[in-house]
Sequence to fold (119 residues):
Amino acid sequence: QVQLVESGGGLVQAGGSLRLSCAASGRTFSRYAMAWFRQAPGKEREFVAAISWSAGSLYYADSVKGRFTISRDNAKNTVYLQMNSLKPEDAAVYYCAVQRVIGGSYDLWGQGTQVTVFP
Fold:
């Protein structure tokens, strides 16, 4: 069964850092673009960052540019999100997702990992 499993969330003080991981199992995702999204209570899910299959192209939401870094290790079938200088408004459930068709939607999602940032 193909699945994505996120980890690394937790409770952190504002200004701190967390590193999220998303491990893909069931098949290799090394040829697919992957991304992180987040959803805060009462808000819609929003894009955070994306990475092409080769890691040659990186994309970030304006709200996280300069603070978050997306990366991947295709040998480990894992994508990461390094989050620095966290703010209370970064608190959300973070999801990783896979784009299995080039130019298509992100159609496979993990279960999410909670990030809580306190002042």
